Amino acid sequence: MSLLNEENTKILHSYIPIADMIVATFGSNCEVVIHDVRNVQSSLIYIKGTVTGREIGAPTTEVILKELRRYGDDVKDMLGFTARTRDGKFLKTSTSFIRSHEGKVIGFLGINFDVTAFAMVNQIIGEFSVTHDLDQIDRTMNESYAKNIEEVFENLIENTLIDIHVPINKMSREDKIYFVNQLDEKGAFLIQGSVDRITEVLGVSKQTIYNYLEESRTET
To answer: What are the YheO-like domain coordinates in residue numbering (predicted)?
Structure first.
């Protein structure tokens, strides 16, 4: 390990006492994670709590991949969002990005607080009130909190196909370029081996994928 990598690893590990403190304060409904985004395929290096059921070595989430792809080292912290998991939980989440001494994003600390019970109580109260307003619940971001990178990739493919409303076997060349563009914007190409995976999905060559990617980036 180089001195620079060792220093960055120390920076990430320095957040472990903070993670422990947060969970100790807010209890079993709270989970805190530390991710090392130098390896998005297996970025989870520390987890305290069991809200999302992940383990050490889990990948970076789709939402974070998208933010990193869009903003790079200028990415802003994401504070006080509501997320809905695939198993139906509502989470109040916050993400704070961790930077090296040179200002490069090397990881992030995330807090996930399970507010499912609060949301259900709020819904029941709302049904008996004059002002039935569940906007806070409806305006959520879906997040899978995948346990491995294959699951992340499958979710990216599935959600992108839903977005473009065209089955793979019916895609024109323009559809495929748009499909690649949408995956690119979601950060799919930050995943090692993504070109090979997308090649299999679309049934084209790797060079074709690179051509689609170059063309879509030129157009945007």
So the answer is: 12-123
